[in-house]
Amino acid sequence: MMNRTKHFGAMHCIACIALVAIIGFGLTACGGSSPASTNAKTVSVGEQDGTLTFGTAGTVSFIVTTRNIESGSTIRLNKPTPDDMGISQGGKATTRDNSTDISISTTAATPEGQHSLTVTVIEAGNEINSKPFKLIVSPSTEKSVSVGEQIGTLRARTPGSATFPVTTANIANGETGDVLWFTSTSSKLPAASAPAGISDSTVSAVSGNTATVTITINNSAPAGEHLFRVEIDGKRSGMTTLTIE
Question: Where does a domain end: 89, 109, 138?
Answer without folding.
Answer: 138
